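Think of the structure tokens as a kind of shorthand, similar to the way a musician reads notation: each symbol stands for something richer, in this case the local conformation of the backbone. In the example below we present two proteins back to back. Begin with the first one, reading the sequence and then the tokens, and try to describe in your own words what changes along the chain.
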Amino acid sequence: MLLEISSHSQFRIGICISMIILLLGVVSIYTIKTMDDINQNYNFILDYNKKISNFDDIKVKYERQMTIFESLKSEENLMGVGTFWIYNTEIKNKIYDFNRLILDNHHIDEILVDEKSSELENTINLYYNLHLEYENSASNALSYFYDGNFGGFLLEYENLKYLQFELLEKLEDIEQMLEIIPIYSKLSVDVIITDFQILQWTMIILVGAVTSMLVFFLNQTNTNLKNEIKEQTKNLQKLNEKLKKVDKKREEFISIASHELKGPIQPIFGFVELAKTGIISKQEALEGISNIALNLENIANNVLDLTKIENDELELHLEKNNINDIVSEVLDSEHYNPDRKVPIKTRLDLDVVMNLDKTRIKQVLRNIIDNCIKFTETGDITIQTNLLKDKKTLKLFITDSGPEIPDDVLPKIFKKFVTKGNYKVSGFGLGLYISKKIIDAHNGKISAYNKNGHPVFEIALPIVDFDLNWKNSVVDDIEKTLKNN
């Protein structure tokens, strides 16, 4: 968890530092761009001023053109007509050069603000159209002159003078606009510096904000780390407590295993010695040892099942089984139990085929029967099955003629290690605890109580799917049996 928080904090702090570096990089790049724009502005202004100076030359050319027409009026110099058109070509070339600089430049939107660009374009278009009109008037005047229509020539001459006056005024307007346009140009030094200052202030504000965020994140990270260290310290303390409990369970498990498994081993040596001395036959000794082995298997299963139960890993393998056959198999295994001092009797009801885990149910019956054997010196042990009237529940009763279960033990008999004082008997607690868990897993119920001065263990198993084995000996007594339940 600490590693995750550290990585998350490092990510946020890294983002802030990256943003600061990025903003400083933007400022650096924009500074370089600003210097480049100023240099571009300087070069543009030089070319711009050079082109503006051409307008003075255009005015001179217009004046010389009028001088040529005045000579024609007095018929002094007819050779100047060709020069008129040379001047006219030079004027148009200069206008074309300027158009290439301003109007035909695809960077015009970057050079001039939109309103100034449109105003200049409209004025130059008006001027150019007026020049074309001037050019047509001059051509008409020359036509009248060569045709000998001197009156027509004079009228056109007066119109030409008027047009020239208009052209010179338009040139004045254009020059005035051209002189102030650099001030409003997007490449103007003032505009560039103003934009750069705005960027600088913006970057300063952003860097300040990001720096504040960085300081906040650092403080928050420091606080979070302190809190997380406290939390992890608590978690470690809890984990330490859990480890102590696990270690206690491990020691408990080892103690249980050694204690439970050690008891049945001694009778094995007893059977061997009895067989050697001839007191009992080898067959009887083998049967006794076999029974003890089954008991050992049951004890081992209990110890292992305890671990599964503690870890919620107890599994059932359900299949159809005859309940009476299960009881018979358990009784067969108890036939040669050396600890058994009393007979085991049965009163079994109808043989019901149920969906059970046979191994687990046998384990439950052996646990209860073995506990009855340990506490019963005289009398008998009885196993009884009853099929209830609703045919949805089967009950098993296991009783013995031993002493009652003490009142202080009875409420907690199905818990682990409840035997204290005079009742420290091997298996009296662990086996019943596991038995209850197995019955619970079958959705059944198990209980213990005292009746007529003797203990009774009652198991109720739900019948979900069953068949009845109709035996000739009980066919006639079915109704009677069900009525007596």
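Once you have a description of the first chain, move to the second and do the same.
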Amino acid sequence: MRLTPDAAWALTPRELAMVLRPHLAPAPLDRATLDGLLRAYPDDPPARDPPWRAP
């Protein structure tokens, strides 16, 4: 940011948020990551056998 201490302390909260936003924002989710999350956490998990059925 290369602000002097006086300039940094003079920032309003809104100005500080604007200055910090590029450093704090997470990277956007790409398709490969989304596909991996969908496989790991499916909306409809596979049905399991009832607990009284022995394998």
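Compare your description with these statements about the second chain. The helical segments are 5-10, 13-24, 31-40.
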